[in-house]
Amino acid sequence: MTGSSVAGMPPDTDEPVLDLRPESAPARVRHALRDFTETLAQWRLCWTLGWLDVKLRYRGSVLGPFWLTASTAVMIAAMGVIYTTLFKINLADYLPFLTLSLVLWGFVGSMVNEGTVCLTQADFMIRAMRMPFGVHAARVLVRNLLVLLHNVLVVVVVFALFHVWPGSRALWALPGAALWIFDSLAAAMMLGMLGARFRDIPPVVASTMQIFFFVSPIIWKPELIEKGHAWLQINPFYSLIEIVRRPLLGEMVPNHLWLPALAWSGLLWVAFLLLFFRVRSRLAYWV
Amino acid sequence: MAASLRVDELHVTFPLYHGDTRTLRKTLASAASSRFEQDQQKRVVVQALRGISFSLKAGDRLGLVGNNGAGKTTLLRALAGIYEPVRGRVTAHGEINALLDTNLGMNLDLTGRENIGLRGLHAGLTRSRIREIEQDVEAFADLGSFLDMPVRTYSSGMVLRLGFAMATSIRPRILLMDEWFLAGDASFMSKARDRLEELVRQAEILVISTHKPEIVAAWCTHVLWLENGSIRLQGPPDEVLPAYLGHDVQADAAMVLSGD
């Protein structure tokens, strides 16, 4: 074995591999941005960590990760029965909407909740070797995307059963999905930093998300609100959910939904970047 | 360019956010000489390292000695870039591998093989290189079919063998080592010694933290004696070690290394 040089790090260079000191303001920004590029360079590690997380959760079980699909399917079927027998709701109209909403919210909710512990749960890795912090957020994203993919099967089946076919309009969900990915990373990273510093953050966020589940149009359709529809916009989840959900149901996304979605995302990113510039070098001390 | 490692006036302090601050403040008041202090923002902090300076060039082997809690592991972590300096500066040329604890950031629920893969990915190795390392570790650690079992099911000796094999199959130019590497039983140590010595020989710079003076006497060209986060004494082993131990260990060391 002769491999004394590690790929990605040329052995002979004048650039120091490490040059660490208390950071000046430009250095904070530079180092934070370098964290992002290093995270991108480590995409295979992010992918493997996320995939192993899913695999590990169901290791030894018969269905494996398809337990995710199975439990979502059972829940949707149960809700279908309850809504038809108790509330006499027209299922063909409601169940496809509900299924899609619950699956999408499942992604959003667990992304936010697991984001709060993305750094504290990786403490053993953080203290064992230097690695970009973005890896930990990307790992949560990969894990939740894989969970989402398993749940999408249920959506497909329900759509097929009720003959819902969004057609080519569904492609309009792609820009929304891209925005979700960017926002997920920023949210997981920001909550991860806050969760490392303040140990109350995970339970606080978990209860807040519970409230958001009910006040956001997830299990109810936004059309139900007749007066004060504009007030829905102060809920960031409203516009962000709609830009992905509507195209998948075969509807167009009006601009009055895209604008707040972009505004909330911008706000999230600014907050995340400011926090990350400020505390990146301290994170290893906090976990 | 040759590997080098330079530390200037390094200070590392840990904020104590999650302890009981009132009790801590009392501790602070009662023990003026303690390492607890308050920073400008009135936070209670522990001074883990205070004003450490040294400089190493290719070929240097530095031994860190000192009591438990003297700051040896914290210094290794600061050299590895895990803890960034609160004050002072750390500059390194040449890639670094830090072997800090037996678990090496291993996930105990994953199999040995999966952990090897993760470690290789982190080091930025290619798929074929990771496979090579896997075979190398398999041959050395002698875990048999346990390599495909979760690390949680291993005996502590097996974890040590896996961690050791994994860590020593990635060869850095700057090697930072904590003393757990020297903690195996006799049969493991005799097997490990050749491999470790080869690794140490290949590394341009070695920093090793240990309680065993014979290791320092045999391997190191410099010794740094840490006490309460500061340097008590640094210099060549034959000056620092006698002071540290209160007696000369050269004789013991010669005996240990030639024997068993």
Automatic annotation (TrEMBL), chain A:
The chain crosses the membrane at residues 62-83, 95-119, 140-165, 171-194, 201-220, 257-277. The keyword Cell membrane applies. Keywords: Cell membrane, Membrane, Polysaccharide transport, Sugar transport, Transmembrane, Transmembrane helix, Transport. It is found in: Cell membrane. Residues 45-245 form the ABC-2 type transporter transmembrane domain. Its main location: membrane. This is ABC transporter permease. It comes from Rhizosaccharibacter radicis.
From TrEMBL, chain B:
The keyword Nucleotide-binding applies. InterPro entries: AAA+_ATPase, ABC_transporter-like_ATP-bd, ABC_transpr_TagH-like, Bact_Polysacc_Export_ATP-bd, P-loop_NTPase. It comes from the Bacteria. PROSITE patterns: ABC_TRANSPORTER_2. The keyword Nuclease does not apply. Residues 34-253 form the ABC transporter domain. Keywords: ATP-binding, Nucleotide-binding, Transport. GO terms for molecular function: ATP binding. Signal peptide: none annotated. Pfam families: ABC_tran. Belongs to the ABC transporter superfamily. This is ABC transporter ATP-binding protein.
